[in-house]
Structures are given as C-alpha cells and as structure tokens.
Amino acid sequence: MRDVFNLKNNQIILNDSNDIKRVYLELTNACNFKCKMCFKNTFVEPEGYMSKETIEQVKKQLKDLTQLKEVVVGGIGESLLHPYIKDILSFLKDELDVYVILQTNGFLLNKFSRFVLDKKIDNIIVSVDNTDVGHLSNDLVYNTIKSINDKRLEEKRDKPVFSMEVVIDKHSLKGLDITIKRFIEAGIKDVIISNLLPVDKSMTERTLYPSSDKDILKDVIKVAQGVISMTLPYFEIKTERKCNFIDKKALIVRWDGEVAPCYRFLHTAKEFVIGREKTIYAHTFGNVNREHILDIWNKRDYKWFRFIVDNAIYPSCIDCNFNESCDFVKDTTVDCWGNEPSCADCLWSRNIIICP
C-alpha cells in the first residue's frame, strides 16, 4: 500500500515495506534492583511480565519478518526474571536463527551460565555501575563474566561475546579506567558508555554535558583503545541528529504487546533535559495481540513518524531561544511544527544518551 503525504508544495509517497531488521523484546519492566538513576523510578504504569499468549504471538509474527537480522532481549527491566526466558532464547536461536543480544544487570546471569554457552547466545551486554546511583554489584558480575569466558575458551567456543554498558556522571569518572581495565581482564570485548539522564532534580548537577572538554574520557580511551571496541557519547550539543532505532529499522515490543518506536516512548515517565523537567508519554502504534507486527509497521502514522525522524524534519528545543517559556517543551505530546509525538529535545538523537 502507498500512503501519500502533502509537505508544503510537495507530495511524499511512502510505500509499505517488510524491512524490519531489529526487534527489541521487553519481556518485563520489573527488576531485581531499584537503582536511583533508573527510568523506572518515575513510571506510571504497573510492573508486568509478557504473557505466554503474547510470547506465542511474537514468535509467530517474527517468523514473517524476512529481513530480520537481530533480536535484542532487553527493555527497561531485567529479562532474566522472566519465567520463560529460556524458552524465548531457545526459539530465537534454534528456530529463528537470528543474532541474539541479551541485556542484563548480570546479577542472575550465573544461573544461566551453561545455558547461554550451549545456546550460543551471540552477545551479552551487562550493565556495570561505577556510581552510587547504580546497582554496584560489579564483583559478582565480574566473576560471572570471567567464569563464562573461561569455560568458553576451554570448550573452544566463540560465543557468547560480552559487552559492558556504563552510565557516567561527575561522580563515576574517577576509577572508571580501572574498572574497565579489570573487566577487560574478565573477557569483555566492547564497552558502551552513556551519559546519565537525570530522572529527578537532584541528579541534574551530576551530568557531564554540555561540555567542550575533549579530555573527559581520556583515561578510559587510553586503557581501552586498541584492546576492545568502544561506543562513546558526545558531550557537546551538536547539530547532527540521528535516531539509532529508526536508522537500524528497529521497533520494540513492550511486555504487554504494545509496539513502540524506541526506548524513550516505551513508558510514561519523567526526565530532566539539561536541567529542564519533561514528561515523556508512552507512544505506541499498535499491539501484537490484536494486529500483526507488519501491519503495525506499515500504519500510516508510523510510516510518517519514521520518515520525519529519519530526515530530522522536526524542531530543536534544546537550542531554541524560547525553551524556557514554551509549553511545547514540557512534554512529548506535540512539537511546535505539529509532529506527534515530539522528538525535539531527545538526547538519544544527539548521541548524549546511548542504548545498545
């Protein structure tokens, strides 16, 4: 089907497609930790787990995605808490045969050591905190990663590959290079560093951005460069905007079956954008329990949303002279150009905040 849109004196034609390449599965928004920096602290929705019925719908529909390459088992929760986690991972590897990324805080991972080796889970991303607003279970996580890696090498396997994800602020930089060096010794092959996105006012003074200091991560780079791969954030607000979710042809299936375009629109919550409080409203385009994932992907509104974001046809609230007095910046309902929802001050698109 073709959808036609009028944009000033031009017509934009957007065709249906089956080009979903990455799917994120949020099996639960529950967690075994209560980190102060977590987005969950301001969620308005209840905690829940993806039901068996929803899982079966997801399985059936994923088989129809002919261009699907990767599935990320993650979201804003701890996936290893889900009672069907082994069943889901087994399906993804044994039946779907896609590249599987498992995001976890690592606390429960030791219980699944044999399983992730035997199932050849491709990539396990473990959150490692060097700050008092995180979970601070690094010793346990380190021992688990090292144990699995030692066993992998002993058995001459090439999977899983471990990555570590770190959230940084002014309090966590000291000793971060030592932490990363230690985890390199445990066997990680990649480090993903993201800035802190404050969820309450008290954290706004901890952020490292905006800054023109090009040496913020010099100690980390010195330790990791040439040894492991690195994904690093920006600290300056740059003109370029790119949504990795749109760029990678990705979508997210929430624990209740709702389909969201990105992590930011997955749940209703609050955040502070460079000191300014903002309400983020969950924005979904359909539910896999009622519609096929491809029909949701090809909905008129969803196609237009992806086109607008992909081509950055939306305002920039962050550097607007009126952002202190404008009502549009208070939430994500709509921007001053009429786009719904609003991505106009998304720090993910500026590469300030990074998600795998």
Report the total helices. Answer: 9
> How would you classify the quaternary structure?
single chain
Which percent range describes the beta-strand content? 15-25%
Low-confidence segments: none
Q: Count the strands?
A: 13
Mean pLDDT: 95
Gross morphology is: globular
Q: What gyration radius follows from the Cα positions, in whole Å?
A: 20 Å
| SSE pattern | EEEHEHEHEHEHEHEHEEEEHH
Report on the architecture of this protein.
With about 350 residues, this protein is of the alpha/beta class. The protein contains 9 helices and 13 strands. It has helices at about 50-60, 85-95, 115-120, 140-155, 175-185, 220-225, 245, 295, 300-310; strands at about 1-5, 10-15, 20-25, 70-75, 100-105, 125, 160-170, 190-195, 230, 250-255, 260, 270-275, 275-280. The protein has a 9-stranded mixed sheet with strand order 9-8-7-6-5-4-3-10-11. A two-stranded antiparallel sheet has the order 1-2. Helix 4 runs parallel beside helix 5 and helix 5 packs parallel to helix 6. The model has no long low-confidence stretch (mean pLDDT about 95).
What descriptive keywords fit this protein?
two-stranded antiparallel sheet; 9 helices; 13 strands; globular
Task: List the SSEs and their pairings.
Elements: E1 2-7, E2 10-15, E3 22-26, H1 52-62, E4 70-74, H2 85-96, E5 99-104, H3 113-118, E6 123-127, H4 138-154, E7 161-168, H5 176-186, E8 188-195, H6 218-224, E9 229-231, H7 244-247, E10 250-253, E11 259-260, E12 269-273, E13 276-280, H8 293-297, H9 300-310
Parallel strand pairs: 3-4, 3-10, 4-5, 5-6, 6-7, 7-8, 8-9
Antiparallel strand pairs: 1-2, 10-11, 12-13
Helix pairs in contact: 4-5, 5-6
